[in-house]
Amino acid sequence: MSDPSRIIAGVVLLTIVTIEFGGWFLTKIVRGQVPMTDFQKAFARAGHGHAGVLVILSLVGLLYVDATGLSGAWLWIGRLALPVAAILMSGGFFASSAGAGRTQPNQFLWVLWLGAAALAVGVLTLGIGLITA
To answer: Is 104 left (phi over 0), alpha (psi -120 to 50) or beta?
Structure first.
């Protein structure tokens, strides 16, 4: 594993502590200790779930990216797009449901879609890089 991929993987692993905190907070939500609408509960679950899954996908991607023939900007897209997607998608769920009594997404829903775009670019770049290596 290259040094840049190793360092990024280390940073991504450190983010798991924040996902753990989110899981603890989610238990408070489902026990009714934090008042939220059904919409907000659903988005909290989705944000937490996407964070966990995409962080693991990011770590797997970092194991593969150095086996590709990618170079320059494409190599960095292959390394960073998946961790960025994890941040943006989960953050988009949380930000777009913030606010007392909210029953539908607010103006920050675009953050979620930006994360979805980062995910698509990342998996396409990594997949094509692996196939053509």
So the answer is: beta
> What is the pTM (predicted TM-score) of this model?
0.91
pLDDT, one tens digit per residue, over 3-41 is 999 999 999 999 999 999 999 999 999 899 999 999 999
The SS3 of residue 32 is: coil
CB atoms within 10 A of CB 73: 9
Q: Please, which residues have CB within 8 angstroms of residue 90's CB and are 6 or more apart in sequence?
A: 47, 48, 50, 51, 54, 115
Contact 83, 8 (CB under 8 A): yes
DSSP 42-73: HHHHHHHHHHHHHHHHHHHHHHHHTTS---HH
Question: How many CB atoms within 10 Å of residue 103?
Answer: 10
* pLDDT, the chain, mean: 96
The pair of three-digit structure tokens given for residue 103, joined into one six-digit string: 């029953």
**Nearest C-alpha neighbor of 106 from the set 37, 34, 14, 7:** 37
Predicted local distance difference test score (pLDDT) of residue 40: 95
